[in-house]
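@channel sequence for tomorrow's demo:
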Amino acid sequence: ICSDKTGTLTTGKMTVVKVWTCGEADETIAASILRIPSAIQKLLAEAIVVNTSFKSDVEWDPVSGNVMKYTGNDTECAMLCLSNKLLAAQGFKSGNPYKDVRQTYPLDDLNRHAISFSSDRKRMSTLIVPQGSNSFRLYTKGASEIVLGLCKWMIDRNGLVVELTEEWKSHIIEEIGKFSDEGLRTLSIAYRDFDQLPNMDEEEKVENDLIMIGLLGLEDPVRPEVPEAIRVCKRAGIVVRMVTGDNPRTAAAIAKKCGILSDNDDSATIMTGSDFREKVLDEHDEINMEEFDKVWVDLRVLARSSPLDKLTLVTGIQQSKASTPQVVAVTGDGTNDAPALKKADVGFAMGITGTQVAQNAADIIVLDDNFASIVQAVKWGRCVYDNICKFLQFQLTVNLTACAIAVAGASILTKSPLNVIQLLWVNMIMDSFASLALATEDPRPNLLNRKPYPRTQPLLSPYMLRSLLCHATWQLIILCIFIFGVGDVCPNSHDLNYCGNATIYHDNIGAIKSGRPAAFDSQYLSSAENCVPVEERVGKAADYCKQEVEEDSKPNQHNAMIFTVFVLMQLFNQINARKIHGEWNAFTGILDNKFFLSVMGLEFAMQLLMVEIPGVNTAVGCTGMTFGQWVLCIFIGATELPMHLLVSRVPLRWLPKRFTSSYGSGEGDGIPLLNMK
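structure tokens (generated this afternoon):
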């Protein structure tokens, strides 16, 4: 996940907590207001207000005086709050003093000119004619070290403009470092006076020889839930990379608070956008994959970056052959982020601060702009994947068993033990009810305890194949016993379900009469009573063939038990299908999914009604069973549960190698592939 910092990892509620001006900084804003000369306070406040967008606004509680809401850019809103405090100290009485300054220098003022902010320049400037003056004044704000490099003068401790010596530059750079180490975002404020209107198209010339007013330290607290979300990501095999416009020291401090960086990480994990471009792009601005592969694996923080750097990072990781193919997610809120959002495998646009262009380019919109919500999206994604696998595991088991029984029936018995209506009901269990039951599982916390799957990994895992083959084999064994080992052969009986006192030619398990086709059971009869062609029936049992053919088409308890056992084994195996990673306890979390239990109950109730209700059971091809037969069918169906315990102990190495060859283990970006036990 390549994540922005402001508003995603942090709260986005910027606050100016430190000001360096007139040669020194104070611990609090209140102390700075007491120290800074009145004229410099007014200059700093005016520089802030004039050089902020009119779309940025602050709502105050008229009673308590506390900030209620930021509208627009959070950084500018925080600076407007500081300007209010400075202007209030100068005697401004209105509730929002900065609005008085805006009225003095309105947006449609003919003397007002602006050089807008860009991610490349990392600064913006506004030219005005100060009140009561005939000269022009340019106010500039931007990245601290960039604006500092454009300054030639500064305001000293006495409030006088003096030359910005190398000694003072070193002192200011040291202050920037101190602010950054505290996790504060730093901005420099500067100005320049002109006797006549400069050519605003010559940006580099105009924004030069500036006078340094001061340095602002803005705090954007890390969201309280983010450090835990980052720990969850690491446990889930997800690497979080922070892409920010802040300077490296500020970015590193925030990254450590979030848990992206540890105290033991070296400088290789942090790069600036300029260094990154210099290393990974060739002279044609194409990615040099050999150099890129040396950088991206360890990279965790990309500071002073542009949207183009984010796009380069995403594209390079996707194309890299240095490790397992990566799935890349990226967050963005600005219009310039749209290419990276579009390029990423998963693009997350911010719902609150995101532009319409960014939201249109993204796959998912994060409504609360919170990184923890992105982790929730990962968890739900894994849940959907697992639910599909659960359904697939169950459906293939039913399909394998049903197909084997149908083929065996057609080959050996001359017809399938399950008729068309019964197979239609089995198909409903497989497709409709199973999808409702297995696809409605909510995500569980342990979904984020495992590493991600590579995109090339087959959908059927070795665990699923083991479960599928073993359970299908067990079901076939039980059904073959019921089909061929149950049901006495007694052709002279007129009772469809019991032989009674009739001669039993083949004594099978139990006391019910065979429901198998007469053509199959005739092998157990003597030659005098066997079914023979009409022209050969002289002296034979003439009524036998007619009687048995009629009985073949009539419902009987033997076939009803075969059908019921088959269905109940699928119902109990539906519980087993909830586990696809080799877990031995199939009941974990089952009570949390009331919908699953309801569907299971509905399936059993419908099976009961189809077998027992007269008329309905005739259409299905069944007849009512005794209480003892129902108990037996339920007991045999329930053997799927202990069978699951045995299946979970079957070594995966017993599976054919062609089924498991793509499930090896490898290393890539510290993310091992799915390992087999």
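heads up for whoever presents: The chain is about 45% helix and 15% strand.
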